[in-house]
């Protein structure tokens, strides 16, 4: 019995000990959680590895010449205590040089056991797994690699999280940089030029794009006043600010963005440019409340909505879309409420799919089959216009293309909206497929009609299918087959560019006018773009000094039947003089072993042959012409010179006998018998070398 009682006492004592341990663990967990909560809500002391200067790090070690001191950032097992000179080198080379800098502080590498170790590791294994790491100055995270730490800090900066949670570090304000473009100041984040999806992305390389859009809006502002315009993706608000600052009372600007930080920055930029802001973040406001004209003319309305929502809720005269990548997701809502004879402009930056680098993406976004061709930039513009045409036709609206520009990093399309099923049908008929020969790169749009042809290769002007084995052509599209430019609209855009001093847009607009008219050279008159012959354009009467008040468009009303008939007649006359589709690259079709003529001279040769010809902005060495590819190559061959005759003037290819006769006449005119004999001897050697293909280099210099 005594033994059993002793056992019972021991059991009860062990149970009490386990219960006490449990209560102690629970209390420690509660205290730890309280500490974590306090540390997350309140600032705390910084880690010893975060210092401003190397001297501050040395003060932690308390360096003395005669005493050995341990490293404050390394355990004794890793780095034993040593004298001051050796410890100084250790701190400088191992900790300070590999630190990460932020806001004047250095996050040095730390070897202390700060990171948690797996519970199954014991002794040396745990020590080997501890490794070096960095302590984040913002969120106190521990990160092992230096590159990861730099990326971690950059992510904090991109999100605007630059306030430190440490006591000794003052909370710095986010530094903003102020840029100026077209007399408009805009403040951006320090990482505005990084290719990341930041809260406010600003691309200085898109300045030309912004100038072209401004010119298009200025032309529309001359037709009717005031107009309501929307920048659906504001970011920093630079585009809408330029509209309001230069056009003043002619426009009512609305800048929209779905990101709250971007909306805040747009408001700050409006105040920076001394513009009043009308903030609206409600999605249930109707058109009447939003469109009231009682506010000041210098007031910019800033909205925080999804772009599709605001375009569904309200009507606008001018809409610009510039999302990240493709804009096909916003076309249906853009054409839903845009007013009659208004303008929709869109900038597409999904270059990889439009320029046939990612063909499966182009098929997914645009429903279009494409391949890489010599005219891939114009192909990209026609792909976007085809998608715009289908979206407008779904809303019973047609389009007229005013401008299509495809440069290195964007594709810009500006179209005018024509309300009604008849314009929608006419525009939809211009969306066709393209037959492209892969051997000679000849191309032609398929004929209208639904009948299936037995041999579609007969539509191509070339005979590659008969002379080459296998299938030689592919079908691309559907594409826009109509004109890409409106000459009258481009001339008025050029006039506005001169009026507002937009120097970068003027050379491009001059090239576009020549390309639209398919001419080589043109004299531009910027003082009178509104002549009597071009007062009417697509049903829109342009205000000129000689016209009455009834001769231009009344806001919100449709045109009469007579005006619509006149517009139809004008469109038919303009269609007959449309510029040729696509272009040829002169280098792509050059002859091997021959020197091509200069591009401007070659344009004159084509013009003398009776063809329409012009240069193109799509390709600096491209030639837009209505000449077939075979005739294009024939003229290029005729006026090319062999490579070994590079020193002579350009012109048609001559025979060797003609060259000898020309040299004899020149030698006789020289008047010196000795020089004439020398030239005749040299000439015979040249002729022999030409046939033996052993032409010496010094003869060309002579």
TrEMBL record:
C2H2-type domain location is 136-156
Q: Which GO terms describe its molecular function?
A: tRNA (guanine) methyltransferase activity; tRNA binding; zinc ion binding
Domain of life assignment: Eukaryota
Pfam families listed in its UniProt record = TRM (PF02005)
What segment(s) does the record annotate as region Disordered?
1-38
Q: What is the annotated localization of this protein?
A: Nucleus, Nucleolus
Checking InterPro entries in the record gives:
SAM-dependent_MTases_sf, Trm1, tRNA_met_Trm1_C, Znf_C2H2_type
Composition-biased stretches, type Basic and acidic residues, lie in 19-32
GO CC entries: nucleolus
User: What is this enzyme's catalytic activity, as reactions?
Assistant: guanosine(27) in tRNA(Tyr) + 2 S-adenosyl-L-methionine = N(2)-dimethylguanosine(27) in tRNA(Tyr) + 2 S-adenosyl-L-homocysteine + 2 H(+)
Q: Keywords, A to Z?
A: Isopeptide bond, Metal-binding, Methyltransferase, Nucleus, Phosphoprotein, RNA-binding, S-adenosyl-L-methionine, Transferase, tRNA processing, tRNA-binding, Ubl conjugation, Zinc, Zinc-finger
One GO term of the biological process aspect: tRNA N2-guanine methylation
**Chief location:** nucleus
Family of the protein in this entry: Belongs to the class I-like SAM-binding methyltransferase superfamily. Trm1 family.
Q: What is this protein called?
A: tRNA (guanine(27)-N(2))-dimethyltransferase
């Amino acid at each position: 019995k005594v033994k059993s009682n002793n056992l019972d006492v021991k059991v009860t004592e062990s149970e009490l000990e386990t219960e006490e341990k449990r209560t102690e663990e629970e209390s420690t967990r509660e205290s730890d959680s309280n500490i974590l909560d306090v540390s997350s809500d309140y600032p705390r002391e910084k880690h010893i590895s975060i210092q401003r200067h190397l001297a501050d790090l040395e003060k932690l070690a308390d360096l003395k010449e005669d005493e050995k001191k341990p490293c404050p950032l390394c355990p004794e097992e890793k780095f034993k205590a040593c004298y001051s000179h050796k410890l100084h080198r250790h701190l400088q080379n191992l900790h300070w040089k590999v630190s990460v800098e932020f806001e004047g502080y250095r996050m040095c590498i730390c070897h202390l056991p700060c990171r948690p170790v797996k519970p199954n590791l014991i002794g040396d294994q745990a020590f080997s797994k501890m490794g070096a790491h960095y302590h984040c100055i913002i969120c106190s995270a521990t990160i092992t690699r230096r590159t990861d730490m730099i990326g971690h800090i950059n992510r904090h900066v991109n999100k605007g999280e630059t306030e430190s949670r440490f006591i000794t570090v003052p909370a710095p304000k986010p530094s903003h940089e102020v840029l100026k473009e077209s007399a408009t100041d805009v403040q951006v984040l320090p990482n505005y030029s990084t290719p990341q999806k930041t809260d406010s992305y600003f691309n200085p390389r898109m300045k030309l794009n912004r100038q072209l859009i401004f010119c298009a809006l200025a032309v529309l502002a001359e037709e009717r006043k005031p107009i309501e315009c929307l920048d659906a993706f504001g970011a920093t608000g630079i585009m809408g600010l330029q509209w309001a600052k230069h056009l003043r009372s002619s426009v009512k600007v609305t800048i929209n963005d779905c990101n709250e930080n971007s909306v805040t920055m747009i408001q700050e930029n409006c105040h920076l440019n001394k513009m009043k802001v009308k903030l609206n973040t409600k999605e249930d406001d109707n058109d009447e409340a939003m469109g009231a004209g009682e506010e000041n003319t210098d007031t910019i309305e800033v909205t925080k909505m999804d772009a599709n929502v605001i375009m569904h809720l309200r009507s606008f005269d001018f809409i610009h879309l510039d999302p990240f990548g493709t804009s096909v997701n916003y076309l249906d809502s853009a054409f839903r409420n845009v007013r009659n004879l208004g303008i929709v402009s869109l900038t597409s930056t999904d270059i990889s799919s439009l320029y046939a680098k990612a063909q499966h993406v182009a098929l997914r976004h645009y429903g279009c089959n494409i391949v890489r061709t010599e005219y891939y930039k114009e192909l990209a513009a026609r792909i976007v216009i085809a998608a715009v045409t289908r979206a407008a036709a779904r809303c019973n609206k047609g389009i007229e293309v005013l401008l299509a520009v495809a440069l290195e990093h964007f594709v810009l399309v500006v179209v005018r909206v024509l309300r009604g099923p008849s314009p929608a049908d006419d525009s939809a008929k211009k969306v066709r497929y393209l037959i492209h020969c892969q051997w000679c790169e000849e191309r032609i749009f398929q004929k209208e009609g639904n009948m299936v042809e037995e041999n579609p290769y007969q539509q191509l002007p070339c005979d590659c299918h008969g002379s080459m084995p296998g299938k030689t052509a592919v079908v691309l599209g559907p594409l826009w087959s109509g004109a890409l430019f409106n000459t009258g609209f481009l001339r008025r855009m050029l006039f506005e560019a001169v009026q507002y001093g937009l120097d970068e847009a003027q050379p491009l607009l001059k090239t576009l006018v020549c390309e639209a008219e398919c001419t080589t050279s043109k004299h531009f008159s910027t003082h009178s773009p509104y002549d009597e012959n071009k007062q009417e354009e697509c049903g829109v009467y342009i205000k000129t000094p000689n016209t009455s008040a009834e001769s231009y468009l009344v806001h919100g009303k449709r045109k009469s039947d007579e005006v619509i008939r006149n517009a139809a007649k004008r469109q038919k006359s303009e269609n007959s003089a449309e510029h040729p589709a696509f272009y040829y690259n002169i280098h792509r079709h050059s002859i091997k072993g021959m020197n091509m003529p200069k591009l401007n001279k070659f344009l004159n040769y084509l013009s003398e042959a009776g063809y329409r010809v012009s240069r193109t902005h799509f390709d600096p060495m491209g030639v837009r012409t209505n000449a077939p590819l075979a005739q294009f190559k024939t003229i290029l061959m005729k006026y090319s010179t062999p490579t070994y005759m590079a020193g002579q003037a350009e012109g048609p290819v001559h025979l060797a006998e003609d060259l000898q006769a020309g040299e004899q006449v020149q030698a006789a005119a020289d008047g010196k018998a000795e020089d004439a004999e020398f030239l005749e001897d040299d000439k015979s050697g040249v002729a022999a070398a030409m046939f033996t293909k052993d032409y010496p280099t010094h003869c060309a210099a002579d």
